[in-house]
């Protein structure tokens, strides 16, 4: 199986939540090895993980590979890539420059890997739906709501109005009023936030088109979304996945914003000039 090495880490991370706890532990053991090469045997990996050969093969297939050899080849190629080397754990002994370098590199890795797995057909469809929508409602809680607000702000700058809902009741009220000409964008890192899922499901039942932005391509929210856009990020004990994933998701939505604006560039440019002029008086001269 010939795949882009940059996508391997993302591919494994996105499918890990669908594994059993034992399978996830085995994956962490395998991916944590620094001595893996093309000669590493199935038996060696199985013994190191404390499971059978058959279990390793089963896990490799659940991760989307043809078998252990395919998984081994992909993992070795990924570990040798420039993208994989960007991430490193933060330790108590790190200096300020170490912290800055590691945090920035983790963000760069998230952006690089997200770009490598981005579904361009889904991207184009999301842009088309958002450009043609009568109403654009964005759903998200916590950090996801901050992404929604950033996108809504950008759209307003080019004259495309949208609404952000970060409360479970308000999301449901919004969803109850939507119809076939409307679009919902649901932001959920885990893709399993019940409040966001419930509102997205109701919006879809009422005919609205639904777009999900999540970190996992088999998360529950993907089952009720017309369009799925995935970010990916490697977590760490201190930062978690959310920090880097948020940056990747902001980049996805920045690209969506540009794509939407490009569809009616003259209008976007005109509206941008008007909105910029409206706040110009608030700047110190």
UniProtKB/TrEMBL annotation:
GO terms for biological process: carbohydrate derivative metabolic process. It comes from the Bacteria. Gene3D superfamilies: Glucose-6-phosphate isomerase like protein, domain 1 (3.40.50.10490), Winged helix-like DNA-binding domain superfamily/Winged helix DNA-binding domain (1.10.10.10). Residues 6-82 form the HTH rpiR-type domain. Residues 126-266 form the SIS domain. The keyword Transcription applies. Keywords: DNA-binding, Transcription, Transcription regulation. GO terms for molecular function: carbohydrate derivative binding; DNA binding; DNA-binding transcription factor activity. NCBIfam families: PRK11337.1. This is DNA-binding transcriptional regulator, MurR/RpiR family, contains HTH and SIS domains. It comes from Roseivivax halotolerans.
